[in-house]
Amino acid sequence: MEKNYVCPPPSKGNLLTILSIDGGGVKGIIPATFLAFLESKLQELDGSDVHIANYFDVIAGTSTGGLITAMLTAPSLKSSKEPCYKAKDILPFYLKHCPRIFPHRTGLFGWLFKVLDIIKMIIGPKYDGRYLRKIICDLLGDTSMKEALTNVVIPTFDVKCLKPTIFSTFKARSNTLMDARLADVCIGTSAAPTFLPAHYFETVDHRTGASHSFNIIDGGIAANNPTLVAMGEIAEQIRLKSKEFPETKPLDYHRYLVITLGTGLPEQDIKFDAWCVSNWGIFGWLGREDKVPLLNMFLHASSDMTDAYVANLFKAIGSSDQLLRVQDHGIPIEAMSPDLSTEENLGRLVEIGEKLLHKPLSKDDHMNNYIEPVPKDNETITYADLFTKFAKVLSDERKLRLQNMGLDAGHSTQEA
C-alpha cells in the first residue's frame, strides 16, 4: 500500500516530533481545547490547509486520547490527505456526543438512577457502550492502523493474556495481524473497567489465512500517559534502521521534541489519607464520591511516573526546552469523574481548559509540570505562550524537511 503520510519524514529534518494525549473520558475536552489552539497557531504560520498531523512523526493516545488521536489522523472521506476532523471540531464532537455515550439521568428520581447505576457496576459495566461503538464505527469506518495520515500509537490491555498490547502503524506495516481497524482499537482502548464492556475482535491475514484474536480494555491500565510508549516505538524503528527515521542512535533523545497533554488531576486537599483508606473494604475502594478511587489511583500514578521519568530524562540531556507537559493539578473533585456528562460539567471542563491555557504560570505550575525555564520575577508566561513557541519550532522543522525534499512550504500537504 502506498504510504499515505502528510508529515515529511524525520530523516529530512533535525527533530523527532511526538504528540501524546492522556486518557480521561469526558475530560478529553481539556486537551481538545489545547489542540485547537495549537492548530490555529500552526495555521497562522503556514496557512489554513495545514493540520496537526502535518507536524508530528508520532501521535499517541490512550482511551479518550486514543479517540482524539484517530480523529486527528484518520483520512477524511473527501480527501485521503486530510484528517476526518480538524482540531477545532473535536470539542464540539465531545459536547454533542458525550451525553449519549454516558447518559446521566437527573430529576425527581435521580437518586433512584444512582442506586441502579451502583447495582449495575456490581454485576457488570455501568454503560452498554452501544452508542460509543456506533459513533466510532461511523467516524472511522474500515480505516486501518497503517492508513493513518501519520504514525499513531495506541496502548490497550489484553485481559486474556494479561499484558499490554500496543497498536501502532509501525507494527501494522510489518505485521498484517496488527493492522487492525482504528475503530476496533479505539473502542478497546476506551473500555475502562466498571464503565464500559471489554472489546473482542479478530484480524486476518488473507494471504496466509492466519488470524489473531484480541480481548482488550482501557489502555490506561498499561499507560494512561503514552509518552514513553511513543518514544519507545521510535527508538525501535531507529534500531531497525527504518528509512523513515534518521541514521542515529536509538537513545539519542536530544533530537526528540515532545508535547504531552493531560486530562487533569484533582485538587491536593481532596485526596484521601491513610486513616480514611485503612477502613475501606472492596466497596470503599470501588465506590466513593471519587467514583472509583482504586482505578483513579492506578491511572494517576501511571501518568505521574511517566511525567517524572520523561522530565528527568530531558533534563539530564539538557533538552528540557523540547518538552512541554500540560497538566492541570487543580481539577475540582466534582469535575474528576470520567463519565459525568451533564451540561454543567461539560461546560465546566471547557472553562477549565480555556482558563489553564491563558492563566499566568506560577513557579508551582512550572515545578509540577517540569517546565523550564522557571519564569523570573514580574515575568508572565502562559501555556498559550508555550504553545505559540512550540508551533514556531514545529513550523520551522516542517519547512526544513520540505526544503531538504526539494519542496517549499507553499506546496500542498499532498506533495509532502
TrEMBL record:
This is Patatin. Coiled coil: none annotated. A motif (GXSXG) lies at residues 61-65. The keyword Lipid metabolism applies. Belongs to the patatin family. Keywords: Hydrolase, Lipid degradation, Lipid metabolism, Plant defense. It holds the Pfam family Patatin. GO terms for molecular function: monoacylglycerol lipase activity; phospholipase activity. Its EC number is 3.1.1.-. GO terms for biological process: defense response; lipid catabolic process. The active site is at S63, D218.
